[in-house]
Structure formats: structure tokens, C-alpha cells
Amino acid sequence: MRARLLPMTGALLCLGAAFLCSRPWLHSRRHFALDEEPLLFPRSAVVRPLTFGHAPLAADLAWLEAIQYYGRHRRSDRQYPCIHTLFATLTGLDPQFESAYVFGDLLLTEEAGDPVGGRALLEEGLRANPQSWRLCFEYGFFSYLQARNSPAAAEYLTRASRLPGAPPAVARLAAYAADKAGERNLSLELWRQVLRSSANEEERRIARRYLRDLQAPEASTFTPEQIG
């Protein structure tokens, strides 16, 4: 739960009551049809008017519920019928809550078996936070895991590397992904960026070696572990 300095209000009580009222339903039944999910967790359009201007604070409560919901089902049936509604409510209350998009993508993809839903959630996060290097990175890395030669991986990792706050490792992974996607010129540009910007001699050594390798006739022999 992120630290907030806003006072606790009746809005939180309303939201808390809504979540608590859902618990008897949650524990009394194992599986739910999609059209029953709104009975278990309130939608952001319903909750927001009850927050009296403190929607981000209410999102913190939804965040705690998301963690508890995951934990309950992770220990029991490993079914997550309400996860879509819960994260839609959370991000609807606070569109700038980056961790919600990242955690939601992970749960949807790895636990709920819905990689399409996970990607859609990240796309929603990117629309709401176009300057977030973290969300760009997650989207690019997700694409890379799906296909090593993915143009989307090269595109989003490159975007992430150029956004404020991105650590140097993002540029290295972007350069590697660009090479795998067949975008050698972009890969060369990114490795030159690493060489110019890094103060770490080991990183500079890797960049110089990779630049020589990319410009040689033979294919690159580097792996993500070597550039990581």
C-alpha cells in the first residue's frame, strides 16, 4: 500500500463496506459466471462518486483487496473469476497506479491464463501513463517473452529506454531485442547510446564488443544473460 497523506473519510467506509459485503458471496461459492462478477466487487463508476474526491485513496483499499483475493485463491482453488473486475475497479479509481497494471498483467497472464487480458490491461496503463518507462518496459518484455524476434518488443523496450527514469539495463535489453527483430541499425544506435551514457566500464566493454559484433559479417553470439 502506497503512503498517502490524505485523511481517512466516509468514502473509505463506503468502499470497505462494499468489499466486505462481497465476502460472504466469495466464500460461499467457488465459481461465478462473468455476468455475476459485478455482484462481488463494485465497479469504479459506482465507487468513484462515493469517494468524495479521494478516489486514489480508495484505490489503496482496492489494492489490498486485490492482494488478499489473490492470496485466498492461490491457497485454495487457483481460480480467479473476479480478477478482471477487481483490477478494472482499481485502475479506474487511480489510472496512475502503475503497480496495479504490472501486478494485474502478471496475474492475468500467469495465474488466470489470460495473456490477452494482461496485454489489454498494460495497453490501458500506457494510454493513461504515456511517459511511464516501467509500463513501456513491461509491455516490451511481455512481447519479447511471447516471441524473441518481436518487433513490438524492440519498439516498446526502445521507447522505455528513452523515457525519464529508465535504468541503463533497459537500453541494453532494447538493443538486444532490436537485433533479434532484425532491426540492426536500431540495435547499433542503442549500443552507441549505452557506450556514450554509461560510466560503468564493464557496460562500456559489452557495448564496444557488441558494436564490433553487429558490424561483423557473422551473426551476434550474445545472450540476454551476457548483456544483463
Structural description of this entry:
It is a single chain. This protein is an all-alpha fold. It is 69% helix and 0% strand. It has helices spanning 10-28, 37-40, 44-47, 55-75, 83-93, 98-111, 115-128, 133-146, 151-161, 168-180, 184-197, 201-214, 224-227. α4 runs antiparallel to α5, α9 packs antiparallel against α10 and α11 packs antiparallel against α12.
Share of helix, binned: 55-70%
Number of domains: 2
Based on CA atoms alone, the radius of gyration comes out at 21 Å
Distance between the termini: 30 Å
Largest sheet: none
Looking at how many chains there are and whether they match, the oligomeric state comes to single chain
Helix and strand element order = HHHHHHHHHHHHH
Which key features would you list for this structure?
disordered N terminus; mainly alpha; disordered C terminus; elongated; 2 domains; 228 residues; 13 helices
Brief description of this entry?
With 228 residues, the chain is mainly alpha-helical. It has 13 helices and no strands. The chain has helices spanning 10-28, 37-40, 44-47, 55-75, 83-93, 98-111, 115-128, 133-146, 151-161, 168-180, 184-197, 201-214, 224-227.
